[in-house]
Amino acid sequence: MPATALPGDGAGFVEWVRPHVPAMARLAARLAVGVDRDDVVQESLARAWMKRHQYDGERGTASAWLLAITADQARKATRRLRPVAELEDHDAAEARPDVEARVDVDQALTALSARQRLAVDCYYFADLSIADTAAVMGCSEGTVKSTLSDARARLRSLLEVSE
């Protein structure tokens, strides 16, 4: 099978996407907080199946193509979220220092621009290369490097971390 073609049958497609599903799930969980990541991955796989004829292996890796679809589906799922009613004070969970440290990082990540968050999520949380992150973001590798640098600088200032 040429590098530009995707398996046309269901069993071949399943085998083709299977190695990429864990990265898709990690990216979905990072980008679509409050949404069931499995739903996002399922929607992404359905979209990939419908668009399988558009995949071109010469334009990027299978991983980058599938993760770009996942990022798009995560954005769509997040937009569909409706605000949930706030918990009353008596329902608040007891504070835990080990969780609070993680919450601070999560809160700092929300202060980044959408483009910076996508770059950080792809590169650091989905463990993509700079090239694959660029393919997911639809930009050059230099833009990814610059975006990651800006994001790290912003996070340093938000978290008061010195080098």
From TrEMBL:
Alphabetic keyword roster: DNA-binding, Sigma factor, Transcription, Transcription regulation
Domain RNA polymerase sigma-70 region: 17-82
Protein name per Swiss-Prot or TrEMBL: RNA polymerase sigma-70 factor (ECF subfamily)
Protein family: Belongs to the sigma-70 factor family. ECF subfamily.
SUPFAM superfamilies for this protein: Sigma2 domain of RNA polymerase sigma factors, Sigma3 and sigma4 domains of RNA polymerase sigma factors
Domain RNA polymerase sigma factor 70 region 4 type as annotated: residue spans: 104-155
Pfam family of the protein (one): Sigma70_r4_2
InterPro entries: RNA_pol_sigma-70-like, RNA_pol_sigma-70_dom, RNA_pol_sigma70_r2, RNA_pol_sigma70_r4_t2, RNA_pol_sigma_r2, RNA_pol_sigma_r3/r4-like, WH-like_DNA-bd_sf
